[in-house]
Specification:
- This protein folds into two domains: 108 residues; 105 residues, no CATH class.
- Helix content is 68%, strand content 2%.
- It contains nine helices and two strands; from the N terminus they run αααααααααββ.
- The protein has a two-stranded antiparallel sheet.
- α1 packs across α8, α3 packs antiparallel against α4 and α3 packs antiparallel against α8.
- It is rod-shaped and about 100 Å long.
């Protein structure tokens, strides 16, 4: 998850922490305006849901370069071995056409791209499958052209395909989640904006003024210097020159 979103989530949690602090909660909890208590509860639930959403968004993308390299090597070895068996079989059968499809040294396989290796391995599997499904299956068995050898190769093809495609699937899913992430954060922010406005109603006592100041400070997104308040800080000044609390700097 981007630092921007981490910082915003921390801000939401810190703001709720200020409101729910045992030394401050009595200022507003079930006090007039009563709707404020409901709004804080709604914001708390929204932040909890947002945190779960962020945990989903931060999934690990599987299929590292090391995984691909290992699966590529295993597939190459397995496909080359069965291709060699087929080459010997076709040579003994005087089948020069099919021999040309599989008669390659290991170095040839090692220089193929990932997609080319998978295609070539699939062709080896298809050729071997055609033999073991036909009338010459028993004659081909001593060459190790068997259902088990084909099954082994097919398994390696599937494994290789998995480490290649899995990262793309994970990236696609994560992209979709990220696109929704900002909307999710903005929806939670809207709940706090309502609290921003209504908390100013508690400026009638020193405890209320202290609560407002602490809450407004918590509503700064650390690392970005963004203030989420649209109203000036409350004043405790009087007509006869009492002290006045200055608005928080933007």
């Amino acid at each position: 998850m981007k630092n921007e979103f981490c910082n915003r989530l921390n801000m939401f949690q810190s703001s709720l922490g200020i409101l729910n602090d045992s030394t401050r909660k009595s200022v507003w909890f079930q006090q007039d305006p009563q709707i404020f208590t409901t709004k804080v509860a709604d914001a708390g639930q929204a932040v909890g849901n947002l945190q779960k959403f962020c945990q989903q968004q931060g999934m690990r993308i599987i299929g590292s370069a090391g995984d691909k390299l290992q699966e590529r090597g295993t597939l190459t070895t397995t496909a080359h071995a069965l291709a060699g068996a087929l080459a010997t079989w076709y040579e003994d059968q005087k089948d020069m056409t099919d021999l040309a499809k599989v008669n390659f040294p290991l170095s040839h396989w090692q220089h193929l791209s990932g997609e080319e290796i998978e295609e070539a391995a699939q062709e080896v599997s298809d050729l071997a499958s055609a033999i073991i499904a036909g009338p010459q299956a028993a004659a081909a068995a001593p060459y190790d052209i068997t259902p088990d050898s084909v099954k082994e190769l097919d398994g390696e093809i599937e494994s290789f395909d998995g480490v290649v495609s899995a990262p793309q699937q994970a990236i696609s899913k994560r992209k979709s989640l990220t696109e929704n992430l900002r909307d999710q954060f903005n929806a939670v922010e809207a709940k706090f904006v309502q609290i921003d406005r209504m908390i100013l109603r508690f400026n009638g006592t020193a405890a209320g003024v202290a609560l407002i100041a602490a809450y407004q400070a918590a509503r700064t997104v650390r690392g970005y210097g963004i203030r989420h308040e649209t109203d000036p800080a409350p004043s405790t000044g009087t007509a006869n020159g009492g002290a006045t609390q200055q608005p928080a700097k933007k």
